[in-house]
Specification:
By secondary structure, the protein is mostly helical. It has three helices and no strands.
């Protein structure tokens, strides 16, 4: 028989994890350009926070937050790529 030890969830630890996760997402939100992607990230953060504040398990919604955050990063990288491309094409002329 296999014995698996698990530790009971500590609400203070859970709250710290949620706070750290939302703080990181808000940092990305502040850095991202205005637009639809930023709005989706804000909505995902709010849904995540609302679910956590209600005492529900956030594991079912963290995927949506991750996706929105990745999309915001991709949009920021796209803008950087556009600036670099413009700079390089100006150097070639």
């Amino acid at each position: 028989m296999e014995l698996i030890l698990t530790y009971p969830s500590d609400r203070r630890t859970d709250r710290r994890v949620v706070t750290a996760r939302t703080d990181a997402a808000w940092t990305v939100w502040h850095q991202s350009p205005a637009g639809e992607t930023r709005d989706r990230l804000r909505d995902a953060i709010w849904q995540f926070q609302d679910r956590a504040d209600a005492g529900h398990n956030v594991s079912s919604i963290v995927g949506a937050l991750d996706a929105a955050e990745l999309n915001a990063h991709a949009e920021m990288l796209g803008e950087v790529d556009d600036v670099v491309t413009e700079s390089q094409s100006g150097d070639a002329a």
